[in-house]
Amino acid sequence: MTHPAEIEVLTDEELLRYARQVLLDGWDLDAQLRLKSARVVMIGAGGLGCPASETLVRAGLGQVHLIDDDVIEASNLQRQTLFLPDDIGKPKALTAAHMLEQINPLISARGTVARLSQDNAYELLDMASGKPDLLLDCTDNFATRDVINRISVRYQIPLLSASAIAMQGQLALFEPQLNTGCYYCVFGALNADTEFDERTCANSGVLASTTAIMGSLQANAALQYLGLTKNPLTNKLLIWDGSLMQQRIMGYRQDKQCPICAI
Ligand SMILES: [Zn+2]
Question: Domain count of the chain?
C-alpha cells in the first residue's frame, strides 16, 4: 500500500467533502490519506459491485478499476444502483466507471470490458505499475470466484469476496501473504460436490436488498482494511440471512492440504 506520506495533504475540497468521516473516532487524516492512495480492482460491476464501489468512491477511495464483460439488461435495474433505464445495452464496466466519476470527481474510476482470467490477470490488474491494494470479488458464480482466488494467491493480493443470492449473503477477506487460508480452503470442497455453486442470481433470484446489504458490508470491510490497515474478518466468514435478519460469524482455518494456497 502506498504510504500516506507520498500524498502529503488533502485539498480543501477533499477536507470539505470528507469532513464527517475525518471527524470519526478511529478514522483520522492518515486513514483518509491511505484511502486516497489506495488502488482497488473490482471484478463484477453488478448487484454487489454497484453499491460497494459507490460507497468506496463517496468515501474517498483514490483509484477504482472495474472489470466486467457484461452489458446492462432491464432485469439488472432492480438492484444495480449505478444504472438507469437509458443505460440498457451499454457495457456495465464503462457505464459504472463514468457514473462513479460523476458522483465523486475527486477520484479516478476506470472500466475495462473484459473477463478476468489467469492468462490476462497480469495485464488487466496492471501489475507492471505495482500490485493493487485489494481485489474485490463482486461476481455471481463459483467458477469466476475460483479464478479470482487463484489470481489472489498467485500474486499475493488480498481478496475481499462477497456473494449474494436470494436473501442470503457471505463475506470474507483473505490475505494470502499471511497464509491464513483462501477462498478454496473455505468453499472448495463444499462447492465441488454440491449443487450450491450452480445457484446464481439469474437462475435463483435475488432480493434487491440482499445485494445492497452485502455490497455495503463489503465496502465497510474494505474501508477498514484500506484506511485503518485492519482486517475485521481475519479467519472469519460473515453469513447474512435476510429472512431472519441475522448475521453470523463462523471461524475457518487454512486447509494445510489446500491445492491453491498451502505451501
Ligand atoms: Zn487455500
Answer: 1
